[in-house]
Amino acid sequence: MPGLIIGVGLRPSTSTESVRLAIREVLSERMDGRLTGLATLDRRAREPVLRAIAVEFGVPLHGYSAAELATVAVGEPSSRTAAAVGAASVAEAAALLAADGGRLVIARRVSQGVVVAVAEHGCDVR
Question: Mind telling me which PANTHER family this protein's record contains (predicted)?
């Protein structure tokens, strides 16, 4: 069963329930995988909402700087995201970085006001 990383982009005021629902929704599409981590912008990784969600799902939360995220090529870079955080992608880029050589299996989408994307590890990660 492949390991899945969900990249998450959100505003600081986003509710825990909105993040939970967005993650559950995207996971429901990948029943063949197992969630192995969440990934986001480093300053969002310090948000209590994402920390609580990572604990709830029992997975690590990976945070990356805007400079690290900016090194990842994505299919549809966002000029709005680039202006706001300094990188043209958060969810997709963070998921790909945390998947460490994996591939994007669900492109960026907005659900519950939360941006999510899913990358798959090349092998099952424990």
Answer: COBALT-PRECORRIN-5A HYDROLASE
Distinct helix (H) and strand (E) counts, the chain: 6, 5
pLDDT tens per residue across span 43-93: 999 999 999 999 999 999 999 999 999 999 998 899 999 999 999 999 999
Residue found under tokens 């955080």: 85
Express each pLDDT in 24-45 by its tens digit: 999 998 777 789 999 999 999 9
Domain boundaries 3-120, corresponding CATH code = 3.30.420.180
User: Residues 25, 69, 57, 104: is their CA dihedral positive or negative?
Assistant: positive
Sequence ranges of the domains in the chain: 3-120
Distance CA 95, CA 1 (A): 18
The residue whose two tokens read 């604990």 is: 55
